[in-house]
Amino acid sequence: MGLITVNRAANFSKNYNYKEFPFKIPPEISEGSHEIYPVVIVGAGPIGLSLAIDLAQRGIKSVLLDDNNIVSTGSRAICWAKRTLEVFDRLGVASKMMAKGITWETGRLFNGDKEVFSFNLLPDKGQKFPAFINLQQYYVEEYLIERCFQLDDYIDLRFSNEVISHSQNKDNVEITVSCPEGKYLLRSCYMVACDGADSPTRKRMNLSFEGEIFDEHFLIVDIFMEKPPFESDRPERWFWFAPTFHDGQSALLHKQAENIYRIDLQLGENIDRKSELDPERVRKRIKKVVKSDSFEIDWMSIYKFKCASLDRMVFDRIIFVGDSAHVVSPFGARGGNGGIHDVDNLGWKLASILKDNTSDNILNTYNEERIEAAKENIANSSRATNFMTPKNKMAKAFRDQVLDLSVNNQFFRNIINSGRLSVPFKLSGLRLDNEYRDDPLLGSIYVDFPILDRKGNQLFLTDVIANSYNLLSFSKIKIEFPFNLNIISVGKENNEDVDFLDFEGKGLERYRADLNYLIRPDGYIVGIFKEINISVLEKCML
Amino acid sequence: MTLNDQLYSRLVNLYQGLDDEKIHQLNARLILLLSEEISDPLVIKKIIDQIETELKIPSNSLSLE
User: Fold this and answer.
1) CB of A14 within 8 A of CB of A37?
2) Which residues on B lie below 8 Å from A401 (Cβ)?
3) Which tens digit of pLDDT belongs to each residue from A102-150?
């Protein structure tokens, strides 16, 4: 904890201009304040920052505590998937991310030094955001912090403030915080732990965090390279199973913003950490990957990971979000994205308790939905890890044969798993009880499509999804609803009495014209109806 | 009868003279190619379920759905 002075010799990215955010004396010390805050968020990484913004945009104040005063020291989470970008758009940071981030289209997969196949991940023209972008975590945090500063009536962002203890009773949470001016006590209705994989909150509560530990070490290196290492000028992702340049272990290369390239090299189980981080040794390894000497090491680290989860995420007034609640391997980018999906699920529920006196039972749905999502993410990332680093001779034989057979055969290409990209968890057990309860869209996040508003401005569905419940309809809705509902009426023809025009016809490729879709504030379709009946609609809402 | 004596002999003979690593590789290749021919995930699941039961292997979240 404390004021960190940016030291270029330490493990900071060398090509990112770190700012030290100022420490301000908290009002509990300067004014003797005893205010009880609605929410205290612990940890100002991407998850905590996003939650503070989400709550602020819903009119809920929070205090956001972080034990240091800079953004992420390395690139860390770099791959942000489409649904996450839609959430970041709602939070007001996606345009900056899109401007800075890298979208790659071509993935190339090698077995040894032989290319098995390449694939094209063309962006879907009918949606606002691509499948994902690559952008270093420090940029994401920078943009989120700037957004928090814009919302400073609602967000009290306190750098260099470390939580050292906490307790809860039936009315609130009491948090002892240490800062450069001393210790003070904070009180809040809820405390949300966004304090990462090594969560001090989780450790203080002595919560079980069970899962599978993987013994493989990976060297992760960011390099700055003016001239791209790829054969084409367009960014690509290259993945090698057992390349000859790296003793038969796996290797990954892909591009981030500002000509930084991420390289992951599997190192094996028993390694000498210190010698593996020797810059000269690392340079030799990287040179073999990029086939050039013209690069500068920007940041590096060695990691080993485990896949684990809490068995619940809500403990009365203390709620866990992101890595503090569940950790996965990096393959599939399910850590950062999964955490943002937690935020998306929690924000509106917490706001409805604090603002609309909704019963706190609604938090049970956060707990149930996100624990299931964590299990799915863990299963997916563990499967990818087991494919990439086979645990026994037979697993290796299966992997080798899949790679060999896939050169000319799509059936086997589909089995190759170098990480299944993060997609939103699908809800089950919804309350809808009609003939559309088996519709594949039910329980899924809405699928975006382009629209024109009445003034002829081109938008996307995602631009008009509101913070409340939404009703997407392909005809004019003339019913008055006794609750807050954002009606999105879309038509095919310009002369229809609707708010938006499905001018490319993509909407009706993805939805049925004769049906109406109830969409939750976090984007989930939770009801599909032919006839609109207010009581049936209400039954589908939490 | 799809696996007659002649085919059975040819199958067993595939393994003649192979060391352990090559046997593993051949087993994997055979199983994968047969899976492709079967091409029905429910049939493959049924076989895996049966083997899990025989070997008393617990079905977990990482197994095939």
Assistant:
1) no
2) 25, 28-29, 32
3) 998 788 999 998 999 888 876 677 999 998 999 999 999 999 999 999 9
* Domain harbouring A519, CATH code: 3.40.30.120
**A509 lies in some domain:** yes
Nearest to A205 by CA among A158, A157, A163, A159: A163
Buried (b) or exposed (e) across A301-318, using 16+ Cβ within 10 A? ebeebbbbbbeebbbebb
Q: What is the mean pLDDT of residues B22-38?
A: 97
Residue A218 tokens read as 């990976």
Write the residue in B32, B39, B61 that is nearest to A379 by C-beta: B61
Count structural domains, chain A.
1
A536 in Cβ contact with A529 (< 8 Å): yes
The range of the structural domain enclosing residue A510 comes to 450-540
Residue A478 forms part of a structural domain:
yes
- Numbered residues of chain B with Cβ closer than 8 Å to any chain A Cβ: 20-21, 24-25, 27-29, 31-33, 36, 39, 61-62
Question: Cβ distance A55 to A32 under 8 Å?
Answer: no
Chain B residue numbers with beta carbons less than 8 Å from the beta carbon of A393 are: 20-21, 24
Domain locations in chain B as residue ranges: 5-55
Question: Which chain B residues touch A329 with a CB distance below 8 Å?
Answer: none
Flag whether A481 is in a domain.
Answer: yes
User: How many other C-beta atoms are found inside a 10 Å radius of the C-beta of residue A421?
Assistant: 16
A467 and A145 Cβ atoms separated by less than 8 Å: no
Query: Looking at residue A198, what DSSP letter applies?
Result: T
Residue B42 C-alpha, separation from nearest chain A C-alpha, in angstroms: 16
Residue A401 is nearest to which of B20, B29, B39, comparing CB atoms?
B29
ipTM (interface pTM): 0.92
Buried b / exposed e along A364-400 (16+ C-beta atoms within 10 A): ebbbebbbebbebbbbbbbbbbbbbbeeeeeebbbbb
Name every chain A residue with its beta carbon within 8 A of the beta carbon of B24: 393-394, 396-397
